[in-house]
Amino acid sequence: MAKYSRILLKLSGEAMAGPASFGIDPERVKELAKEIAAIARHGVEVGVVVGGGNIFRGIALAAKSMDRVTGDHMGMLATVINSLALQDALEEIGANTRVMSAIQMHQVAEPYIRRRAIRHLEKGRIVIFAAGTSNPYFSTDTAATLRALEIKAQVIAKATKVDGVYDKDPMKHEDATMYQRISYTEVLTKSLGVMDSTSIAMCRDNALPILVFNLNTHGNIMRMVSGEPVGTLIS
Asked: What does DSSP say about strands 155-160 and 210-214: parallel, antiparallel, or unpaired?
């Protein structure tokens, strides 16, 4: 029995890159698709937001000399590429999916309409939200929070490459301590860098919990929706 009936899964663009730090690794995307499809078959309604870092990192240097708004629009288009790659992998294994884009591109994806997104979820389709919020200066973390609130998700499942939220960077400090549970205010005041401050504040103001877990541990997505103690709960 799943603990959550509707979730918003936030994936980084780097999650699509596999061992490399950029580009799309087809095998890694297939693995992700299998895990996401498994929880959908389990009866969980799944919305997904994917970042664009794996593609945008390659052009980030060029974007440094560009206008910020132009750079952000390029990043949004990178998320559309990742969303289509994930959709293809999901449909290859028989999962019903829809890509809904905040930037209208009718030949590629449906336009994002909140009521239509909820209807897709109710019909058991996995909905991938692309192109952020369509507004510059907002990260894909903020887009994930906004979409989670709009579709009334019970939790944001924030997939990372570490086991949860630590008091300092576990990649640099061996004595870093992981929190099992932490408040939104502590995350903000300690600048723990889990998600950007705008998205944390939005979650706090709307009492939307965030579960931070390690995506690289196989089966963690299923454990998370089943209510097993995985990662760190921010509430």
From this structure: parallel
> Which domains are assigned to the chain?
6-234 (3.40.1160.10)
What confidence score (pLDDT) does residue 100 get? 98
Helix orientation angle between 68-92 and 53-64, rounded to the nearest 10 degrees = 160
How far apart are alpha carbons 163 and 232 in whole angstroms?
8
The strands making up 181-182's β-sheet, listed across from edge to edge, are 110-111, 97-101, 126-130, 45-50, 6-11, 155-160, 210-214, 232-234, 181-182
Euclidean distance between CA atoms 222 and 128, whole angstroms = 18
Placement of tokens 């960077």 in the chain: 169
**Positions in the chain whose pLDDT score sits under 70:** 57-64
**Of 218, 199, 210, nearest in space to 34 by CA:** 218
CB atoms near residue 67 (< 10 Å): 10
Helices 26-41 and 68-92: angle between axes, nearest 10 degrees: 70
- CA-CA distance, 2 to 196, in Å (whole number)? 28
* The token pair that represents 234 in the structure block: 């921010």
Helices and strands per DSSP (H, E), number in the chain:
8, 11
- Tell me how many degrees the CA angle 49-122-31 measures, rounded to the nearest 5: 45
The model's pTM is: 0.95
Residue 63: Cβ-neighbour burial (10 angstroms; 0-12, 13-18, 19+):
middle
